[in-house]
Amino acid sequence: MTAKCPCSGCGTNLEFDIENEGESIVCPVCAHSTRLYRDNPAITRIPPLNRESGRVRTSGEWFKWGFVVVAFVITGAVASYYHDLDETASFLVKASLSLGLYFFPAFVGRNKRNAKAILVLNLFLGWTLIGWVIALVWACVKDPGEK
Ligand SMILES: [Zn+2]
After folding, report:
1. 87 in Cβ contact with 93 (< 8 Å)
2. CA-to-CA separations, 82 to 18, 70, 88, 94, 122, in angstroms, rounded
3. 47 alpha carbon to ligand 1 midpoint, in Å?
4. Taking a C-beta distance cutoff of 8 angstroms, is the pair 105, 131 a contact?
5. What is the per-residue pLDDT across 7-57, written as a single tens digit (0 to 9) for each?
6. What is the 7 CA–ligand 1 centroid distance (Å)?
């Protein structure tokens, strides 16, 4: 995407790639040093908004993984209080494998429009094999408009 701004020396409209916005260049017409900027606020405001939502999504992702790690550590601490370390390790492996298998449909459908509904079905009816299969099939169904 390109934009135009007038040179501060001669006023010639200079076309530039918006990625170079904010940089100083030497004007090809008058050899004056000028800064590249966009004066259309509607266009200027779009990239920072996108960056913001990207940042929020990233911190949400970290929160999710942090939650998983904390749950894992607490489970391990509780289990090791009652059992020895070997038993705890094998318990954690079995627990995470079966939890991973149990929530596999919700994981597959995590980016779907109905991700929350799939998770609820998975959570409450996943223990009935048919509920688990329905959740998995639902998670594989394409959203409208999805390629
Ligand atoms: Zn110029």
Report:
1. no
2. 61, 19, 9, 17, 30
3. 27
4. no
5. 988 999 999 998 899 899 999 999 999 999 886 554 444 454 445 555 555
6. 5
DSSP for the chain reads -EEEEE-TTT--EEEEEGGGTT-EEE-TTT--EEE-----HHHHTHHHHHHHHHHHHHHHHHHHHHHHHHHHHHHHHHHHHHS-HHHHHHHHHHHHHHHHHHTHHHHHTTTSTTHHHHHHHHHHHTTSHHHHHHHHHHHHSPPTT--
CA of 2 to the centre of ligand 1 (A): 18
Distance 33 CA to ligand 1 centre (A): 8
Dihedral angle sign, alpha carbons of residues 45, 51, 53, 59: negative
13 contacts: CB under 8 Å, gap ≥ 6: 4, 5, 6, 7
Helix axes 85-102, 46-82, angle to 10 degrees: 140
For residue 90, how far is its CA from the centre of ligand 1 (angstroms)?
A: 72
Say whether pTM exceeds 0.85.
no
